[in-house]
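Entry 14: structure prediction run for DUF1929 domain-containing protein. Input pasted below.
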Amino acid sequence: MTAGLLLTAPQQATAGPPNLLTNAGFETAGAPGADMPSCWEKSGWGDNDFTYATVADAHSGTKAMKVSLTRRLSGDRKALVTENTTCAPTVVPGRQYDLSAWYKSNTPDVSVTVFRHDTTAGWQYWTDLQNPPVSAAWARTEVRTPAVPPGTDKITWGLSVYGVGTLTTDDYALEEVGAAPPQPACTGTPDECAKGRWEVIPAKNPIRSMHAVVLKNGKVLLIAGSGNDIAQFNAGTFTSAVYDPANGSFKTIPTPVDMFCSGHVQLSDGRVLVMSGNKGYPSADGKIGYQGLRDSYVFDPATEAYTRTNDMNGGHWYPSATVLGNGDVISFGGLKEDSTGNVTAERFSAAQNKWLPLNEVNQTWSYWGLYPSMILMQDGRLFYSGSHTFGNGTQGSGASVYDYGANTVTDVPGLRKKDERDESASVLLPPAQDQRVLTIGGGNNESNPAAHRLTELIDLKAPSPAYTAGPDLPQGLVDVGGVRRAQTGAEGKMYVSAVLLPDGKVLETGGGLHDRADPVFEASFFDPVTNTYKAGLPADPIPRTYHSGAFLLPDGRVMAVGDNPGNGTYNHNVSIYTPPYLFKGARPKLTSVIDTQWVYGDTQRITVDRPIAKAELIRPAAVTHSSDPNQRYVDLPLSVVNDTTVDLNVTSNPNLAPPGWYMLFGVDANGVPSVATWVHLGGASALAAAEEAPSPHVHDFADAPRAAPEPNPAKRDSAPVAPTVAGCDRHYGSASQCVPTRFPAEVEETTKARCDWLAAHQYPKRMKVNGSDPLRLDPDGDGYACT
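Run finished. Output C-alpha cells:
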C-alpha cells in the first residue's frame, strides 16, 4: 500500500503558487540550433548509452521530455533546469521548497536529484531526495527540500534515470514553503534554553562498563566483562547490565566470557553481535601483553541473554566492527591470542548467522591497529578515518579507503598529526547522504603529549577525497591533579565522545588532556551546515576519560557513563544531558507510523500533531573507546500532504542505511524533535531485491580516489606489537593500573616529580615493583614504588 501512495493519492503542494520555474512544461523551444527546450539542459555522467527527446506525449500542453538509457554500467542521465542566472530559481537560505513533477517510467531506478549554487564555490551536487515508483500512467511526485544551506542563492533539479529504461517528465514545479514558524517559548532558565542541562541521576551504574549499546526496545546494554579489573578476571567474574531509561533501573546480566575490550555491532534483526574480548591480562614483567579471544556471542534484547556463535578465525582484542549494506559485519585489527597484531579480516554472514572461514573473506593482510574506525561509504567501500586506540596511526597518510571487492587500499591525504589520533572520534556527519566525516582531537598513549584540539573534515563525494582543516576544538577547564585551570594554547582532548542529535548537530563531550589522566570539562555543538562549533555548553560534571562513552537515547537526551583513570578506579556515576531543544516548548508527536517494517526505496506515511520540517533515521549507538563507526543520521525527504500527514521517502541504497532497527525522529522548524519511534529497515526480501537490482544511485564521487592504490602486502600470520601497546609500564602495580611508560612532558624525569604526579593523580600509595625499576620509582629498593 505504501509503495503506491504517490500513484493512487497524489496531493497538491501545500506551499501553493507561484511556481518559481521558467518553462516548467517544456513548451518553449530553445534558442535556434538548441536541442533542448528553453531553460533545460542535458545532464549526467558515467558509462551508459542514452537518448533525449522532446515528445508530444504530454501530461498537459503539447510537449514532455523523454530520457532513455539502453545500456548502463554506471552513472545517470537527466533533464536539468539550466544552471544559469536566468533559468535557475533564486532561493533563500534557511527556507524549504516543494519540488513536484508529473512522470511516467518503466524503471524503478529514478531519483529526484538537486544541485545548489554556492556563492563562493559555484554549482555543486546537493542531494537526492526521492525514488519515485514505476508508473505506466502519469503520476505526480512531490518532495520537500531540506533547509537551504547558508551561502546558497540558487538551486536546480531534475529527475534522474540510473537504470536501463525510459523516463518521461512534464509540468515541473518549485514552490517556496510558507512563512517561517513563530519563535518558541523558553520553558527553562535562559541558560538551559540556550545551552541545555546536565544532571547526575541517583542510580549508580552497577558495573564497570566499557561498552554501551542502545537496544531496539530503548534500553541500554552496558558491558564490563572483567571491567579492566584483574581481580575480577582471576575470579572469573564477568558482568553486563541492562539499563531501562523508562524507570531508571539496572538489571545485571550473566556474562559468559571476558568481553572487556571486545567489538560489538547491531545485527539487522536487532540482536547485538559481540566479538572477541580479553583472553588474558599482561604478565607482571611486561613480557606478554593483552591477549584476544576468538569467542563470539549474540545478545538478544528479548531474552536479555547471550548465545554463542561460532568462533572467529583468530583473537581480536580491540577489533573494529562495521555493518555492511547486506547486513554482514566486517571486522579488522586487534590483538591475537599471542598478543601480536591480527592482520586478517573477519566477516560475519547475516544470511548464515556465522563467521565465515578465512578462505571466504578477502584479505589484504594489513594490520589496521586497535579499534580502527571503519565507516561504510555509500558505494560500499570502507573509509578508515585515522581514528584508532593506542599508539601511532597506520603507515602512509594515516587515513585510507578500502575497497573490499577490489581488495585494494588507497591512501587519503590531509590528516594532520596522524600519529596523535589515539582516542580521537570520527563521525559520519548528518545527513549520511552528504558523505562527510568529522574527526576530532586525539593524542598518543606512547609518547603522551598533551592532547591536541585539531579537527578535520572530509567530503567523501569529492572527486579526490582529502581531509581539510576544520575549526579548532573549543577549550574548557582541565583538572590537573585535583586543580582545575583553563586550557591554553593548542591543548585539546582525547577520549572524546561525539553524539549525533536529532536536530542535525553533533554533541562533543568528555575527554582528557593526557593518557588516562587530567579530565577536561568542556562540551560543544558542531553544526555540519556551517562547519562551526558552538562553544560554552555546560560540561558533564563527572570526569569522562578512558573507558567512558556518551550516546543518544530515544527521547532525545544523551546519556554518559564511565571513567577509568590510570590509577585503576572507576566512576559509577551516570550523567544525563538534556539539550536546549527540549526547553523550547511542546514537542511534535508522531501520532501514527502506519508501518514500522520498511523496505528500501519505499514511501512511508506518518501522521503528526503539527507540522514538521524534517525527519530522519538515527542508528542506535554501539560505542566504546570513542568509537562508533556505525553511528549515522539518514535524512528522510518529506512529501507533505498537509500539516498533519507526511510521506517519508526512504533511501533505496542499503549502504547509506544498513539494514536494522532505527530511531525515527520528526523535527519541527525550531529544531525540536519528537520522541523516537522504532522502525525496522530492510529484511530478507528487501536485501534480496537490493542485491538483484542495479547499483544504487551514486555520483562520480564514488569513483576510486585519484591516488594509486598501495600494493597489497604479502600473506603473513601477524604484525609485531609491543607488549606495552596499552601505554602502561607493567613493572608497577597491578594490570588494572596504568603507570605511564612516558609521563607528560611537563613532569621532570626525577623520582620525586614522577612520584608527586602519581600521588596527585590518586595512584595507590604502595604499588608493588614487578622485577626491575626502569622509571626509578623505588630508590630505597623495598620493592614498592614511591614509598
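Notes: Residues 40-176 form a domain with the Jelly Rolls fold (CATH 2.60.120.260). Will compare against the previous run tomorrow.
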